[in-house]
Amino acid sequence: MRRFRRPATVTLDKDGLPTTFTAWGHTFGIVAQEEHWWLTERPWWTPENLGKPLDELQVRHYKVRANGVQRSAVVELVCLRGEWFVVGVED
């Protein structure tokens, strides 16, 4: 899986799961969840995170199958404090 940290705009369904995302100027439809989403936490012990509430340090990960105009790929999306990023792409 190639690693990135590309900002993305994500559309969610009524259950809070991603249905589409836009990155690199293109919109991709999500056709399947490859894995159940999971949580990690940013390191609370680093100077920039000391004193922050734990919910601000949680990162929600989604591994999805996405279709674009020319190709399909497995994509890892993350949400940190309401901001979305594409962090991995596997063709």
Summarize this, please?
This protein is mainly beta. Helices cover 4% and strands 62% of the residues. This is Nucleotidyltransferase.
Description of the molecule:
- Helices cover 4% and strands 62% of the residues.
- The protein is mainly beta and 91 residues long.
- It has one domain (2-90).
- The protein has a six-stranded antiparallel β-barrel with strand order 1-2-3-5-6-7.
- The radius of gyration is 14 Å and the shape is elongated.
- The termini are close together.
- This is Nucleotidyltransferase.
Overall number of domains: 1
**How far apart are the termini?**
8 Å
Spatial order of the strands forming the largest sheet: 1-2-3-5-6-7
Low-pLDDT residue spans = none
Helix count, per DSSP?
Answer: 1
Task: Characterize the main sheet.
Answer: 6 strands, antiparallel, barrel
Helix/strand/pairing class, anyone?
mainly beta
In which range does the helix fraction lie? under 10%
Q: What is the gyration radius calculated from CA atoms?
A: 14 Å
How large a portion of the residues is in β-strands, by DSSP E?
over 45%
Order of helices and strands: EEEEHEEE
Mean pLDDT: 93
Q: What order do the helices and strands come in, and which of them pair?
A:
Elements: E1 2-12, E2 18-23, E3 26-33, E4 38-41, H1 54-57, E5 58-67, E6 72-80, E7 83-90
Antiparallel strand pairs: 1-2, 1-7, 2-3, 3-5, 4-5, 5-6, 6-7
